[in-house]
Structures are given as C-alpha cells and as structure tokens.
Amino acid sequence: MTLYASPICLGCTHFRGFQSVTPAEINAYPALKTTWLTGYCAAYKGREAGQTDAIPKEIWVGQKDHRQPVSGDQGIRFEAKSEDDAKYAALLFDS
Predict the structure, then answer these.
(1) Please, what's the largest Cα pairwise distance for the chain?
(2) What is the per-residue burial (b if ≥16 Cβ within 10 Å, else e) of 24-44?
(3) Please, what's the b/e burial string for 65-80 (b: 16 or more CB within 10 A of its CB; e: otherwise)?
(4) DSSP secondary structure string, 29-85?
(5) What is the distance between the alpha carbons of residues 45 and 39, in angstroms, rounded to a whole number?
(6) Which of 16, 18, 26, 33 shows the smallest number of beta carbons within 10 Å?
(7) Taking the domains of the chain in order of start, what are their residue ranges?
(8) Alpha carbons 8 and 54: distance in angstroms, whole number
C-alpha cells in the first residue's frame, strides 16, 4: 500500500476549493481525464485552460513548505485554520 500526505493546503485559511474541469476542456485537452488536479486559493487563484494546477504541484504534494515564500504566491502563505493544522504542517516540514 502507498500512503500519501494530505496537502497542507486543506488546512489553510486561504484554501478555496477545487476548480472543476469542463467537458469542453476535456475535449480540448484529453490528458485531463487521467491527471489529478490541485485546488486553488487566495495566493493561486485559478488555473489556465488545460493546466492541472492552480496551486503549484510542489506545494500540493509537500515538496515545498508554503509557510515560506514560494514564487508567485503574492505574499500570501499558509495560515493554519486550527492548532491541529499548524501541528500537521510542523510534522511535515519541521523535522
């Protein structure tokens, strides 16, 4: 079994949700049928047609700590919704 960490984005006050893919977009970009999508937030407001991410994949999969500046984030960084969310971010990045 493979385990993945949940994105810290889900515990951030700036997270807004997921941007759905339209049928027209799937027709134009067939690869979207088999590709996961990231969410969007106050820092990364939306994806362009055919892109799979609004939030950069490096943040979404936990390769970059968005409590620190990340290119294009407009100065908006991870802010925990709760103490548990802050602890989760610390668990992922403060080791």
Answers:
(1) 44
(2) eeeeeeeebeeeebbbbbebb
(3) bbbeebeebeebbbbb
(4) -GGGGGS---EEESSS--PPTT-S-SS-HHHHTTSS-TTS--TTSTT----BSSHHH
(5) 9
(6) 33
(7) 8-93
(8) 15
